[in-house]
Write a sequence for this structure.
């Protein structure tokens, strides 16, 4: 990067099945981020809108609610990595010196999107390359891991329960349990694709999240006594061929994609797993979090299960994973999810995350997969103003 | 008997002889010595040309799951409420993701599986089929 890039403002509209319109959610999150940064929309030099399955013109239309400033507006769509990709483009725009301040704004409602997709699917009729549900695809990973590493269904349930309980401290999370969620509850919920139960599956709903990035001059000017949050790595990659590559039916590519993209992010940021204070991942199902313990370098191959059993990845542990509840409990509308991860990471690094605060958070690792498939990995680091 | 036709062309053969097994249609890259399914316009590794080939109809089950939803919305599999999905390794080094026939408890990683065609819709006297795999001993 030519210019150092900093997150100067974040904001969200709560995730959930509240039925709020995309317009309302995008305005709420965008306005909250502007207020958090302490700037006006006229200060934003570039806007990247991230949403899935909506009207192609809605992003530029909703930007008018924030102001008619002449700002360039671009629509980004990259499956579940849409928000992460919008964030990356905003970072690159600032890093390249094109503008001093850029905004990434993600929103949508996966329930509305799913209904539209199903209508299309039913109207067109069955296809050979038929719809494979993410629940089925990741269940194939899970059954294979049970075979190879001896992982139990209880271990999957423990990952899910952890993330449900993290979300209890996140006011923006979709799943807000009024009690400590137990492994037994997760196991007793309905089976959707063996070994995954409904409480292991990511929450589906709508929401919005926004992050504003800027160069160091703006970040320092707006710090107002808060630590700076620097984007020390930004990586995005698509699949490379591996033995056993599946071209038809795979929701995402081989798990090696996460390993190689994370390795590139570590190298760019000059950090390793031991330097990371917390991690956000694409935990659509618990199997992903378990596999990423290993592919992101936190455990040796086949030994990732230990991290959930010894509490390493729970709040209060050495390196909490999905401290905001993750996809499983915070929720996973495609457009804003990557930006919700940046929202939580920024609050964590500033020390503003309340009851879910990771003590002494210094570096956050932020990972998203997008169907098709792509992998986005960012490292955010605390820096004194 | 209804005439069987591929749901879409280019993915598998539909043998006229009922004693003959269907085959998946794939690409072979001589430059990479790799097979790919479904067919590719060029080798995804070397960017060199590929040739059309047919894959072996039998392989080994790599993983499986049982999904509590009907297959393809309208098509009925098993009891109509759920269906199996599996990944099968073929001798050519290709991993296929496919619907698998059977019910919970029928599958075990490492078991031999065979390609078969299954109906997904019917129009007049024409039965449209797609491919699936199932345990060889069933």
């Amino acid at each position: 990067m030519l210019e150092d890039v900093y997150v100067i403002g974040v904001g969200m509209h709560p995730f959930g099945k509240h039925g709020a319109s995309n317009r309302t959610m995008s305005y709420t999150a965008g306005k909250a981020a502007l207020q958090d940064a302490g700037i006006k929309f006229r200060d934003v030099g570039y806007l990247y809108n991230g949403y899935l399955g909506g009207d192609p013109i809605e992003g530029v239309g909703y930007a008018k609610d924030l102001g008619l400033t002449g700002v360039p507006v671009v629509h980004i769509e990259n499956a579940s990595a849409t928000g992460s990709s919008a964030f990356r483009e905003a970072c690159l725009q600032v890093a390249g010196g094109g503008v001093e301040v850029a905004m990434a704004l993600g929103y949508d409602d996966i329930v509305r999107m799913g209904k539209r997709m199903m209508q299309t699917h039913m109207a067109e009729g069955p296809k050979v390359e038929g719809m494979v549900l993410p629940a089925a695809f990741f269940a194939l990973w899970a059954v294979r891991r049970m075979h190879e590493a001896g992982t139990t269904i209880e271990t999957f349930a423990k990952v899910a329960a952890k993330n449900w309980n993290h979300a209890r401290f996140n006011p923006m999370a979709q799943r807000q349990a009024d009690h400590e969620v137990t492994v037994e509850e997760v196991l007793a919920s309905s089976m959707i694709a063996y070994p995954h139960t409904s409480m292991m599956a990511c929450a589906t709903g709508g929401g919005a999240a926004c992050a504003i990035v800027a160069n160091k001059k703006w970040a320092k000017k707006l710090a107002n006594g808060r630590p700076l949050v620097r984007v020390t790595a930004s990586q995005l990659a698509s699949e490379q061929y591996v033995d056993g590559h599946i071209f038809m039916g795979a929701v995402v590519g081989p798990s090696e994609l996460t390993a190689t993209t994370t390795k590139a992010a570590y190298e760019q940021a000059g950090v390793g797993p031991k330097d990371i204070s917390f991690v956000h991942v694409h935990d659509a199902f618990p199997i992903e979090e378990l596999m990423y313990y290993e592919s992101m370098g936190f455990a040796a191959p086949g030994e990732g299960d230990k991290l959930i059993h010894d509490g390493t990845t729970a709040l209060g542990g050495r390196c909490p994973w999905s401290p905001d509840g993750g996809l499983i409990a915070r929720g996973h509308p495609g457009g804003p999810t990557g930006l919700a991860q940046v929202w939580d990471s920024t609050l964590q690094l500033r020390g503003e995350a309340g009851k879910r605060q990771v003590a002494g958070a210094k570096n956050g690792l932020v990972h998203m997969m997008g169907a098709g498939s792509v992998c986005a990995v960012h490292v955010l680091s605390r820096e004194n103003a | 008997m209804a005439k069987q036709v591929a749901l879409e062309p280019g993915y598998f053969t539909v043998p006229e002889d009922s004693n003959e097994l269907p085959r998946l249609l794939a690409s072979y890259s001589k430059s990479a010595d790799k097979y790919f399914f479904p067919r590719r316009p060029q080798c995804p590794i070397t960017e060199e040309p590929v040739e059309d080939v047919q894959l072996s109809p039998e392989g080994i089950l790599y993983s499986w799951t049982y999904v509590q939803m009907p297959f393809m919305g309208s098509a009925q599999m098993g009891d109509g409420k759920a269906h199996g999905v599996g990944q099968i390794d073929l001798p050519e080094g290709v991993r296929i993701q496919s619907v698998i026939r059977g019910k919970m408890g029928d599958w075990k990683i490492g078991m031999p599986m065979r390609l078969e065609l299954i109906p997904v819709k019917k129009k007049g006297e024409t039965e449209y089929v797609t491919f699936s795999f199932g345990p060889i001993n069933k």
